[in-house]
């Protein structure tokens, strides 16, 4: 009986486990995941803007474990790929024939000096944690005017469009509350432009101009001074810029989990080193990875995982049967860019930054129908399709 060990019970891990069990119920699948709570994190953008409660994003992990999958509630600690073994933090040694690594990203709160302290103060929120997303909505509701600052760090993050989504929603909220005239909305990002794909960047630049949002690119948040309500940015020229805020949404720096980055599975940047098309590890043919912890050079989104999972499962089963790996992932990812309480630009693209759109219309235009897809359609697809191995 083929033994498959999956590290991580988030979007990637559960989706792969479900697909494996549907493909062959005789497989011995073990899932290593310490958390008993599972979150549909894309919904947190809307939670932070008061569209829906945080509880709507949560399910019990136990309710999502596919039938026949063994679930171990421990943390992975070390990998020994030559011995085909993973050791947990508690000291348990787990053997496998094939390994799938999908633990997601790690949020590095301590890489911005003063961030932890700032999140304890009024007016500061973050949509990247269940513990801080409600603070975003509280800060927005209590905002009466002044400078509203939104940040995006250097490096890979979950859903690269999320930092600007809450900016647009907040600006829309200010208009609806009649306080836009006495408010300055500032978006400060470490990157060089608003979006990496030209078609959608052009559309978003038009949104920014129309909505009067001030942008600062090449600005990476390095420190917060919550006692003075100041944000300190490092610029590309080596200078520091200080922006005072009355409302602040912080997107914290993120990266591969420490236990992955220090393992033999990692590439030079700490991600699980896999082939960009087959999702097979470059050095160990019985190891695969997908999702946020992988080295796949595409945006780290649930939509990307939806396309990665069937490729990984097909190739893993082919490897187990001694057959060539023929399934190929083209880098597809999607970012539903919410631009207000009733509008959304649906960006879909591949490794080459080419639009790969699903609908027979121009998805770079803001549409209410696409907002409804984000609010209602995609969560249903997630809970009842992806995580059940059906979509």
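Sequence proposed for the structure above (391 residues):
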């Amino acid at each position: 009986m083929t033994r498959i060990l999956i590290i991580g019970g988030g979007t990637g891990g559960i989706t792969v486990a479900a697909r494996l069990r549907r493909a062959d119920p005789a497989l011995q699948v073990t899932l290593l995941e310490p958390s008993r709570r599972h979150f549909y994190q894309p919904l947190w953008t809307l939670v932070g803007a008061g569209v829906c409660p945080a509880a709507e994003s949560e399910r019990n992990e136990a309710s999502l474990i596919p039938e026949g999958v063994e679930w171990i509630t421990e943390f992975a600690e070390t990998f020994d790929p030559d011995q085909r073994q993973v050791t947990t933090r508690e000291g348990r040694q787990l053997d496998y024939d094939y390994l799938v690594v999908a633990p997601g990203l790690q949020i590095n709160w301590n890489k911005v000096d003063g961030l932890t302290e700032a999140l304890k103060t009024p007016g500061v929120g973050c949509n990247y944690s269940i513990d801080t997303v409600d603070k975003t909505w509280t800060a927005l509701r209590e905002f009466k005017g002044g400078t509203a600052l939104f940040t995006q760090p250097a490096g890979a993050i979950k859903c690269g469009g999320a930092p600007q989504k809450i900016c647009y929603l907040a600006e829309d909220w200010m208009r609806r509350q009649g306080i836009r005239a006495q408010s300055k909305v500032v978006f400060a990002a470490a990157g060089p432009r608003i979006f990496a794909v030209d078609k959608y960047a052009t559309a978003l630049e038009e949104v920014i101009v129309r909505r009067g949002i001030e942008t600062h690119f090449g600005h990476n948040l390095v420190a917060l001074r919550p006692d003075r309500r100041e944000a300190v940015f490092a610029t590309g020229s080596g200078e520091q810029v200080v922006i005072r805020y009355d409302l602040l949404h912080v997107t914290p720096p993120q990266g591969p989990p420490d236990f992955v980055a220090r393992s033999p599975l990692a590439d030079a940047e700490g991600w699980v080193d896999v082939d960009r098309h087959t999702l097979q590890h470059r050095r160990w043919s019985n190891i695969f990875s997908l999702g946020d912890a992988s080295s796949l050079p595409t945006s780290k989104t649930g939509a990307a995982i939806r396309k990665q999972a069937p490729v990984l499962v097909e190739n893993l089963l082919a490897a187990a049967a001694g057959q060539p790996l023929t399934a190929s992932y083209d880098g597809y990812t999607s970012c539903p860019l919410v631009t207000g309480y009733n509008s959304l630009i649906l960006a879909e693209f591949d490794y080459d930054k080419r639009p790969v759109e699903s609908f027979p219309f121009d998805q770079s235009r803001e549409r209410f129908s696409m907002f409804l897809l984000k609010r209602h359609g995609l969560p249903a697809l997630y809970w009842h399709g992806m995580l059940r191995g059906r979509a």
